[in-house]
Amino acid sequence: MATIASSSSTVLFSASSSNLLPFSHPSTSRLSFSSSLSSSSSSLSISHTFLSHTSSTSTHSVNHSAFTISASSVEKKKVLIVNTNSGGHAIIGFYFAKELLGAGHSVTVLTVGEEGSDKMKKTPFNRFSEIVSAGGRTVWGNPSEIGSVVGGEVFDVVLENNGKDLETVRPVIEWAKSSGVKQFLFISSAGIYKPTDEPPHVEGDVVKADAGHVVVEKYLEETFGSWAAFRPQYIIGSGNNKDCEEWFFDRIVRDRPVPIPGSGLQLSNITHARDLSSMLTLAVENPEAAKGSIFNIVSDRAVTLDGIAKLCAQAAGRPANIVHYDPKAVGVDAKKAFPFRTYHFYAEPRAAKSKLGWESTTNLPEDLKERFQEYVKIGRDKKSIKFEVDDKILEALKVPVPV
Questions:
Q1: Cα separation of 191 and 205, whole Å?
Q2: Most buried among 143, 172, 290, 365, using CB within 10 Å?
Q3: Both ends of the chain: CA-CA distance in Å?
Q4: Sign of the Cα pseudo-torsion (120, 125, 130, 131, in order)
Q5: Residue 257: is the preceding peptide bond cis (ω within 30°)?
Q6: pLDDT band per the 50, 70, 90 thresholds, residue 73
Q7: Mean pLDDT within 363-387
Q8: How far is Cα 357 from Cα 9, in angstroms, rounded to an integer?
Q9: What is the DSSP secondary structure assignment for residue 174, as one 8-state letter?
Q10: Residue 360, Cα to own-chain centre: how many angstroms?
């Protein structure tokens, strides 16, 4: 029996001695060598360990052999990240750029808009100096004029982390094809899945055919050779500029009730941005494994809506006073009253695990502690915040609100 697992450029093989010829080696031995290939600048090391075990009730000996092969490619890629200038996805490009640079790749980040705009004063854009100091390049402009914005530079890989429809993304795809880009990665959305009676969503589940992201995915499949699409859900991490966990902190630190629609048992998925960047980096470094694939770019654990509130309270060191309500009964729009979907909405990263050897590192309780520290650092816990929608809900429920 053999098992294979890969992470980045590492491959592990293990095999029982029943499939091998007998050896007369000592109980433990190791063989290793490395080679350098001028064409690919890669190194290969192999280790072979023999273990011997003798049963206490029998003189029969069983030898087990384990092989470990670690291949590390040093081929570096030139990567262009087309990054959105707002919303929760903006943090993806920021983390991805830093991870690529840390691995020795060359990175240019093209952000939509102008460098001097007010949007660039917010996170993660006001931290782009971290990308530059790590050796990356940052530019601003209109993706429809991408060729002139990047100055005719040639790239190996493009990540499109801006467009939500074909009209926006097509110019980037066409430029990438004409300029010789070898791999095109697209940030789609897990929001394109149709609700299912069999959660979680997995790659291949039915999607909304008319959704903009779906149209882009289909166009990529039809026109680009090496491509992959990534479907994220809710994202957490330092530098995030979209209110999700902050919504809970706002209420918890002010000792206000936390109104959650429905039972609170609905399942969702929150993923740290470092997980997104690590999966994307694996795709860059293993293009054949990623080619033509859809990936749910999410953590491998779900969390209930009540659970999010409780973990946020735990991070803040305070109790959570959760109240449940029916949006229709109290006359509010749940989309405006609550930052998450009000039904089961979570996916699993099955394709990334099987094709890329990816593993999640999201630890929601600890990650929320990080976010709460930043929440306090910027003084949001002291800011004056209005809760008109909350008050309407709580009034209908006859739940008192602290003054």
A1: 12
A2: 290
A3: 67
A4: negative
A5: no
A6: low
A7: 96
A8: 9
A9: H
A10: 9
